[in-house]
Design a protein that fits this description.
11 strands; Purple Acid Phosphatase, chain A, domain 2; globular; alpha/beta; 6-stranded mixed beta sheet
């Protein structure tokens, strides 16, 4: 069994570097990986219907469908930027998980989640998240033309990305999420999980712990904005990799 995990590309159109590198990377795993897990915030925004996706995402969505047809199973985890993915991808046999789920790989029990709910002290964010995923918001956005949603979302995405660079240099490791997530993972290990795989934090992390003579693995996947990092599970081993590209 070979599985690949990626997260946090925050694609906002075909012009960004992450988009081009992901197209090449996806070509490289076609026919090689049994499973591809996309663990949230692959897109910086997502609104669609069964027949239409944002034109700037068309090529990479088609690439994902090609990989699915080649025999690689694909699973999407919704993040805090992309949700209601099932409306489009379910028709192609791609699994969509709105929240965390348990995955079995060769008998190993994995807890996988985007990770944006790990900090349960941030009640304001959790309330906002609940609204964005509610039936009410779903109904509201369905009444707005897609072209309008795409235009507004693209503007918000660019503003958010610009502010993020100026405020944090593109890194989210300074906000305390890594230790919070590590503590969260240790609690999951006590409940019998062999590995915990999270996104959201943008800081690539792989920790191995021996607990009661059993190897446990904690992973934060990083991103495809500055790190181009991903996780490979192959032959019972977890390996954090970085995509090496040429311009």
């Amino acid at each position: 069994m070979k599985a690949v995990f990626i997260s946090d590309a925050h694609l906002n159109g075909s012009a960004c570097d992450g988009y081009r590198y992901l197209m090449r990377f996806l070509d490289s795993i076609r026919g090689d990986a049994d499973e591809l897990f996309i663990v949230g915030d692959f897109f910086d925004f997502w609104f669609s219907d069964r027949d239409s996706v944002y034109p700037g995402f068309y090529d990479i969505v088609e690439k994902l469908l090609e990989i699915k047809k080649s025999g690689t199973n694909i699973s999407f985890f919704e993040g805090n930027h992309d949700f209601f993915l099932d409306d489009y991808f379910a028709q192609y046999g791609i699994k969509v998980f709105p929240d965390e789920t348990v995955i079995d790989l060769d008998g190993k029990k994995l807890f996988v989640s985007h990770g944006d709910t790990v900090d349960d002290s941030n009640t304001a964010y959790l309330l906002w998240r609940g609204f964005l995923r509610s039936k009410l918001f779903y109904a509201i956005q369905k009444k707005i033309p897609l072209s309008v949603l795409w235009r507004v979302s693209g503007i918000i995405s660019r503003i958010s990305r610009s502010r993020g660079r100026s405020n944090s240099g593109g890194s989210r490791s300074s906000n305390g999420l890594v230790p919070r997530m590590s503590t969260f993972a240790m609690e999951k290990f006590k409940k019998g999980f062999d590995a915990v795989v999270l996104g959201h934090c943008h800081h690539p992390t792989l920790e191995r712990h021996v607990i009661n003579n059993n190897m446990k693995t904690f992973v934060i996947l990083g991103d495809w904005i500055s790190h181009y990092s991903y996780l490979v599970y192959d032959g019972g081993e977890f390996m954090m990799e970085r995509y090496h590209f040429t311009h």
